[in-house]
Write a structure and sequence with these properties.
Helix content: 25-40%
CATH topology of the largest domain: VC0802-like
Radius of gyration: 17 Å
CATH architecture of the largest domain: 2-Layer Sandwich
Number of domains: 2
Low-confidence stretches: 1-8
Order of helices and strands: EHEEHHEHEEH
CATH class of the largest domain: Alpha Beta
Strand order of the largest sheet: 2-3-1-4-6-5
CATH superfamily of the largest domain: VC0802-like
Largest sheet: 6 strands, antiparallel
Number of strands: 6
Structural class: alpha+beta
Strand content: 25-35%
Number of helices: 5
Mean pLDDT: 88
């Protein structure tokens, strides 16, 4: 984990978690189906794997979980086993693993009360042609986590450092 302290602005630190994978459960048939997210997490728990980050769009058509890279394949198999009926009924299109990604987290006590912080972060990454794969904000609203390709993680952190004046 790498950190950078900022003297000014809402973002006070940037942290990176490497060697992670995104496991995505997707399907149009998931919308409005009760319990899919719960069953996904139960499946992950059966593999004794910690979920490092979680994101679900309001469309309810996909769930992304970020897990340690060395657990991704067993997590995928366990979710597929749990969701076999939904996969066979085409309610779930697939369970996909994206390797070679990293989590970048920006942290700051005043992030939630400072308008435009997220936009500035995404703008800085966009200026570097870095695509954000998944996004999550912690319940404390003191941090924003995003997933980028591992090959772009150092550039992403550097872009955020430039944004914060470090």
């Amino acid at each position: 984990m790498k950190e950078a302290q900022g003297e000014n602005g809402a973002i006070k630190a940037v942290a990176t978690i490497n060697d992670v994978s995104v496991v995505t459960v997707r399907g149009r048939g998931m919308k409005g189906v009760t319990g899919i997210a719960g069953r996904t997490f139960t499946s992950v728990a059966r593999t004794h794997t910690s979920v490092l980050m979680f994101a679900q769009a309001s469309s309810e058509q996909n769930i992304c979980i970020v897990v340690p890279r060395n657990s991704a394949d067993k997590v995928k198999r366990e979710i597929e086993s749990e969701m076999m009926r939904e996969i066979l009924n085409k309610e779930i299109d697939d369970v996909d693993v994206m390797n070679d990604v990293a989590i970048i987290t920006t942290v700051g006590a005043s992030m939630s009360s400072t308008p435009g912080v997220s936009g500035k972060v995404f703008g800085a990454l966009g200026d570097e042609n870095i695509n954000v794969i998944a996004i999550a904000q912690g319940s404390s609203e003191c941090g924003i986590s995003l997933v980028v390709k591992s090959a772009e993680a150092k550039r992403a952190v550097r872009a955020i450092h430039v944004l914060t004046g470090n």
